[in-house]
Fold this protein.
Amino acid sequence: MEMKLRKITVRLVVALALAISSEAYAQLFDYDGMCYQLTTETTVGVLGDRDALGDVVIPEKVSYEGKEYTVTSIGEFSFAFSKIRSVVIPASVTEISPYAFSAIQDGEGPHRYSNPELTSIEVAADNPVFASKNGALFNKHFTTLILAPKKVKKFIVPPTVDTIDSFAFYDCVSLQHIEMPSSVVSIGSEAFRNCSSLISIELPSLLREIEYCAFANCTALTSIKIPDSIKIISGSCFAYCTSLKSVTIPSSVKLIEAYAFYGCESLRLVKIPSSVKVIEDRAFDSTVKLVREDVY
């Protein structure tokens, strides 16, 4: 009995210590007009400023109550609602939330918001995790394109890139032309969502996956040719591409997920190869005529 009480007491003490520690590290403070949060005894994360304008330079060190802290992260929604034009990221920042420059709010259904003014992201050359080129954010080795500047009209993806990250070009409403190298094998969810000026795109021949909503609401897109390296056309992948008139589906595709081409009101006829075993609910509008073809 005494042993059980001792174990319970120890657990309560540990829980209390963790609670106190968590509360201490959750401390928020302002420094030079920017909001920060204590994350450890020596580090802080940027929480940003939704009213920030113009050009922002994130410092490597900040002071709070007489103590100096290292800035190591940029947290969720830090600049999602701001109107900053550019941001400079120091070498000390090794973590950036996927939602640092965008956010989801619920109104009449969830909607993502992103900073429409962002034209440049610059990362210190000695940052061990991130890098930048032509105003875009990459991982250190330039194999993943993380975030593109919002007002870009033409973008050439470097030949080292194999992954276009989720939300990379989200809301790039001015984007008209993009060149992807053959090295790209993955396009993340919502990567090109709401790129309303994008008329055409040539998908790399070795592309293996196009994730959920990757090209949703690309309302100027008129045609798309799925490469024969794709096996699944993901849910809502091309949903509400209202100008889409031509879709080429290769014999490698086995599954077309729900809402993949839903809301493509200009699409009238799609040839479905015999390799496609499953077409999920509302993958196409009811007005689209689906024609099965034999593939030998």
